[in-house]
Amino acid sequence: MKSHSIHRRDLLKSALAAGAGLSLPPLALGRDPMLARQDDGVVLIPPRADSCIWIWLPGGIAQADTWDPKQYTPYRPGMKGSDLLGTCESIPTAADGIRLGAGLERIASVMDRGCIVRALANDIMFGAVHMRAQHYMMTSYVHPAGFKAPSIGSIVAKTLGRRDPNVPEYIYIGRDIDTSDTERLFIAEFIGPGFLGVSAAPFMIPDPTAGLATLNVAPGMTRARLDRRQMLFQRLNNLAERGLLTSDKVANYRKAIDDARAMMDSPVKLAFDYQNDEKPETLAAYEPAIGAGELLDQSYYFGRRFGHGLLLARRLVERGARFVQVEYQYGPFKGFDMHESGRDRMIEMKKQIDGPIGQLILDLDQRGLLDRTLVVLATEFGRTIASQPAAGVEPEGSSESHTGQDLIIANEKMYGFHGHFSSCNSIVMFGGGMKRGYAHGKTAARHPMIAVENPVRHIDLHATIYTALGIAPHTSHETETRPVFVTKDGKGEAVAALLA
User: Fold this and answer.
1) What is the CATH code of the structural domain delimited by 47-216+264-498?
2) How many CB atoms sit inside 10 A of residue 207's CB?
3) Which candidate in 13, 144, 167, 286 could, as Cys together with 311 as Cys, close a disulfide (CB 3.0–4.6 Å)?
4) What's the pTM value of the predicted model, to 2 decimals?
5) What is the pLDDT at residue 178?
């Protein structure tokens, strides 16, 4: 039998030269047997995007107040939960027929470049367990998966490699390096490389406003002295037994050290000097519209870190970054994880994310980068009305079915979307081969607000994102002599309606 395996670069060159992808639907591209399936399971297709900025907003965003607004129902004492459809007015956007929740005016102004999936449907009920839902969104696999599932960033890094030799292929901005308890340790697992190993691990930048001291030598240390130390380290390693010398894992750690040293002299360092390089008005546009001292809970505030993280992400993409993830750092019962005062806290969160996200899209578009940069705004699940006065304790599946007819909203702290809603939420994408000014799917106007038109499964959302980046949804990487696909069992299908 004749093999169709060819080198991935040759495949891309020939495919692009022939105009592949202009007449074939994305799914056909992913399944065409004439496309290369290499021995390692990697199947590449003509990419629509070269880079991805994944904006991670964990906690469970109330979609009815943001991307999928419903009828505004002002608070009144004693109102039924079934009467609460939206805590804010909806506003028009730059895209005809698309409306967002009030407080997202800057994002609304660039929605003519955006694509909303309003009915991201799910048949897996997570109840109030954020960690399992976040694992699912980050990896496409439900925990426990039977193996250490790699994150989407690590899969992209491993499969596509670096765009620029000086810039790490997977960069993570905004999360503290902290494994001090089981929850933080679990988060570090599902945003990491899983079984793919250290070569696909994220390059962590906790706080962009603080710079990155590790790119500079320690006080009193010269670069020449540092290089001598590294040479000594390599010579000592060469004395190890043969099994270690030929170990792939050891080689990957050595490469990580070499790459870190190379970054100290590379142009990527200049990306961190944004406070001197950027115009004052640009810096101001990435600042949140609210400070920590103005919040209901002043102990939890990452607004400035988040905004500056988006600015740094744009500068890193300009210098050749492949995948950059920016997180508004998750905290239980904090941020978008709203168990009380949902209306007021949503107002606060919108003031922190709206301006910086809107400016990022504008900057990318004005610099000619948006066409080839996929920007994704994601969270782990949606929100609905609480099923009982004490929000956040509902059993799995209850929020997905109740109407709120028996719930009385007795005070303003109860006014908001405090229930966890696994069945349906929304996701927003910009650029990178996605349709512009487009909203896909529809949800019910009243509770439970489940998908009623064009639902998109999580597995197919992942397949669509991988397809845009040039990775076929049935691509696999091997662990313990078996293939693990980038979408569960390789069955994800790109949604052609979302792709331009």
Assistant:
1) 3.40.720.10
2) 17
3) 286
4) 0.87
5) 94
